[in-house]
Amino acid sequence: KVVLAYSGGLDTSVILTWLCEKGFAVIAFCADVGQHHEDFEAVKKKAVACGAIKCIVTDLRAEFVSEYVFESVKCNAIYESRYLLGTSIARPCITKEMIRIATEEGATFVAHGATGKGNDQVRFEMCAQALSPMIQTIAPWRDAEFIESFKGRKDLLAFCEKRNIPVDVKPKSNYSIDENLYHTSYESGMLEDAMCPPEESMFKMTVSPQNAPNESETVRIEFKNGIPTKITNLNDKTVKTDPLDLFLYCNEVAGRHGIGRIDIVENRFVGIKSRGVYETPGGTLLREAHLDLEGVCMDREVKRITENLASEFARLCYNGFWFAPEMDLIRHSINYSQRDVEGTVEIELYKGNIIIKGRQSPKALYNADLASMDIEGGGDAFDYNPADAQGFIRINAVRLKTYAALRAKDVKE
Known about the structure:
With about 425 residues, the protein is α/β, with parallel strands linked by helices. It has helices at about 10-20, 40-50, 60-75, 85-105, 120-130, 145-150, 155-160, 245-255, 280-295, 300-320, 325-335, 370, 390-410, and strands at about 1-5, 25-30, 55-60, 110, 135-140, 175-180, 185, 215-225, 225-235, 240, 260-265, 275-280, 345-350, 355-360. Strand 9 and strand 10 (about 240) form a beta hairpin.
């Protein structure tokens, strides 16, 4: 038996039938992680028509938000300072469920349709082996026989026609799409030309900032232990507290104001540079709010260390090491750092801009009297003498003076 990660698209439908013809009993697995307007009943019927003994569709949206999206928000994860990891964090969520099904069904193989040039093959397989060390993976796009048989879309379509596999008659987009409730990504095709701008018509989650409303909206987002717990629209009084509903509403309100689009060239784990266009409206909004709240709640040195942890979290997630021991270490450390990240942030959304209006926290380290330029000391609660700064500066300058003396000696010689 083999459990195939199945989308209902051309590639995985061909792979499903190909596996059946190789003698495998195929269980198709489709993860609902919030793909836009997906007809899962049609996907199930197509999988069975292609030869699957059954097709299992699992709604993972709530788990995806609570255990993956919010984990990413909590540590401000961002890859290469730009990419919010929308595809990367979905893969461990999907793989975990695929391994659960394989165990329950007694399957010794899992299979996927990821390309041999991309990151997803690594993510699926690293996560699968971490969760089930004895599981074996079938990756047709790395199989010599499969590659020889299917050199392009024309061969795939011919295979479908010969075996009466239903195919989408709509013309293929000139780019590939990966989507979930966290983001939508676009790559390949015309986007492989790094100077070719994306088509406005392709975007699914956001409007263009130029076409966004002329009136702004203001939202208040509440956090506890670094996790968003409530969003309130101060314009129309909409309130969301359920994690899934809250995040979907973040997508909605940020998306209609053109927030969260990026167009980048990134470094894949396999060593290839890749151009990708992404839209992550809700994730962008929550990350900005969370970063701002940390500013008033988090100690300076803890912040410095967590910035390094966030970078490592992003690298590990991007490269497929979600279930690695070092990722466990980072996530536990981040959890500890978030104990006092609690409070609210008010944000105005306007034509692609996230404008922080204010923040407050019952656990704030910020003290207005201590920071005030109108109060000489630290106020009633703090003993702060500005004259102490003189010695502080002199001690910190010692190494700078020593270095300057060395460089001056070099010049004389």
